[in-house]
Amino acid sequence: MSSRPWSSSEPLLPEPRDTWHQNLLQWYDIHGRTMPWRETRDPYSVWVSEVMLQQTQVVTMTPYYERWMARFPTFAALADADEQEVLALWQGLGYYRRARNLHAGARQITAQGVPATRDAWLSIAGVGRYTAGALCSITLGLAEPVVDGNVERVYARMNEDGAADRQLHANAWNWATSHMHADRPGDWNQSLMELGATVCKPVNPECPKCPVQAWCGAHQSGRVSEFPAKGIRRKAIQMKQSVRVPVYEGLLGVRQIPAGKWWEGMWEFPCGSSEMHGGSIQPLGQIRFSVTHHRITMDATLHHCESAAEGLRWLSAADLAELPMPAPQRRVLKLAVLVLA
Prior knowledge:
- This protein is α+β, with helices and mostly antiparallel strands.
- 43% of the residues lie in helices and 13% in strands.
- It is built from 14 helices and 6 strands.
- Strands 1, 2, 3, 4, 5 and 6 form a 6-stranded mixed beta sheet that branches.
- A hairpin with a 2-residue loop joins strand 1 and strand 2.
């Protein structure tokens, strides 16, 4: 840690390259956010944090991380867990494939040992180039780069690179590889990501606080808002769905989502077209949600059944709280509980 805080009023010299490395690391030592997974080099802790942080903001992810580590503190603890419990604890983070990959990866590592190279990490379920680089640099001290959306943005602005999408991603990886810091690779990677997350933000970047503004081409030319260039946006697909909440003698009927469907292995109320004869139907309301590029409107109804239909699992609302259910189904459950109260 530096003995004095970095100040944007201090002179920054644009030569040599090592100076901007030094400025960025000094800034990170002082201004980097304190996070539980940054206080350790334990590969399990770092692995869990990196997977959870994929497509999830730190403020959202942190309580999930803390609950996860309390329940599954080691590779072995996670490997021994039941998948339903793993999915239940993951509820709310979305992209449930990440939880399944963690579970499968923990079983691989428990059987084979903790990976000690980049290639070994790449052989673990769900571990790609980014995660392998993060784990190798942070836990093993290897000079392996990482590139996420924050690093892409820092790169694009510093170099005034007008590329977008895949080309921008490839260019950023090349740049990150050529600018690795051999002595502090883990801190270096995290400092680049931290700069993008807290200073070089997508909207309203705080350039006066940036420790590398003297090396930033977009800042020097006054074109920061032009980078990164906007890529081709995939057109949203509008969908309509219906769901029916069966209720019989105070219990609610759910079914397990089959393989190949969104949220496979979790639990849901049957769709509105399910064959459930007899009883009465009561509107619950409408919810809207998104899955990748799909924008979905779901109509929910309550079906007061005359008998407990076969093929469903009948549980109380309290018991359903223990089952892994997708967030939209949780919202439907809340509507049903309000009506039945």
